[in-house]
Each structure stands twice: as C-alpha cells, then as structure tokens.
Design brief:
Length: about 220
C-alpha cells in the first residue's frame, strides 16, 4: 500500500536515509522537514496519510517533534503518527499514546528497529489504525503511570468490583453485609477519588467501571 508521508528529522543524513528507504518500498514523500514548526505547517497543507517524526528537534531541540505530534493528533483526530526516537520522552509520550483512543499511533526506539521489514510493517499497521509501541517504551511508561485505583480502600475496591459485575446498590449491601447508606458512601468516595466528572450517577458508574477495567 502506497502512502503519502511526511518525514520530520533534523539530522540530514538520517532524514535522507529514511526518504530513500520509504521511497524504495513504494511510499510517496510529500514533505521532508527538519523542525517542528515546519512539520505542523506541512501537515496542515498536505493532509498526509501518516507522519514520521523524531522527538528532539528544533527550535528548542528538546521534545518539539513529539509535542508537535500530540498537537496534530488533537487538530486532526485519527491522523496516523509514528514517532522515532533515541529515548523515551515520558510526559508527551503518554499524551501521544492516549490520543485518538490509542489508535493509529506508534513509538519506536531507533536503535531497536531490527529490520527494514519490521519498520515498514509497523508503518502499514499504524496507517491502518493499529498501535505499535516498542517494548522498552511500554516498560518505562508503566513505571510512571499511576494506578488510579491505588487511592481506594479495600472496601471501596470490593464495591467497585461488584459495580463492574452489574450489581445494584441493594445487592452490593446484601453481599457485603453492610447498609445501603454505607454502600452509597463508598460509591461517593470512589467517584471522588477517581476524580470523575459531576454528572449523573449512572454515567459516573460507567466511567468508574471503565477505570476499573483499564487497570
């Protein structure tokens, strides 16, 4: 499958190498840029099928490329993005992988791309809505992602687990041998500790269950 790609990499030799490789496998490079500002401008103008960007780029040579990718995913929901980096930039990596429901996105470490076929396969997967993340990136992000359920007491864990199973407040009270008022209090604490929006309790129950399932 031929794709219209934008490549963002400030190291000229690496950028030219990527261009040559991608062209050899049949992709069309519609823009090749060396800084994050030009990446944003080119993406807005060209509407690519996928962008490939480094993390550390001008103008600040810190995490400009990654921040640009997050911004573009917000501006163009579903835009496929592959980040190539020499290291894991934790803060914006989480934002990138959480964007768009975690679909059509990838984060690979340059030194761990073992073969051309692995790289080109990853591009195809991301373009088709898949998620490709280097195992080392996952390990580092897992270490810093705080479990939102850690703040819950053992009893609140029990109550949330029963909510996830579809039990009503009255059946939860019966199973735990506590009063309905106590169940209501535990549920209120759960909503508060998980920082769920103040809407209807039914909606917050669903959000609480989704948090439970994710963790």
């Amino acid at each position: 499958m031929s794709l219209r790609l934008i490549v963002a990499e400030d190291a000229v030799l690496l950028r030219e190498g990527l261009i040559g490789l991608l062209q050899r496998v049949g992709h069309d490079i519609i823009a090749a840029v060396g800084d994050s500002d030009t990446l944003i401008t080119a993406t807005r103008a060209e509407q690519p099928d996928l962008i490939i960007t480094d993390v550390r780029m001008p103008p600040t040579r810190s995490d400009d490329g990654l921040r640009a990718a997050v911004q573009l995913r917000e501006e163009f929901p579903g835009l496929p993005v592959l980040v190539l980096s020499q290291y894991v930039e934790r803060s914006y990596a989480l934002g990138l992988l959480d964007s768009g429901g975690g679909t059509a996105v990838g984060y690979l470490l340059k030194e761990r791309i073992a073969a051309v076929t692995d790289f080109t396969t990853a591009i195809d997967q991301i373009a088709n809505g898949g998620t490709v993340v280097d195992p080392e990136v996952i390990q580092q992000l897992v270490r810093i992602r705080k479990d939102p359920l850690e703040a819950l007491s053992p009893r609140e864990h029990e109550v949330l687990g029963l909510i996830a199973q579809g039990h009503t407040n009255s059946t939860i009270a019966t199973q735990l041998f506590i009063s309905p008022a106590a169940v209501n209090k535990h549920i209120g604490n759960i909503f508060s500790k998980l920082d769920l929006p103040t809407t209807t309790d039914g909606h917050r129950r669903v959000l609480a269950v989704l948090t439970y399932l994710r963790t």
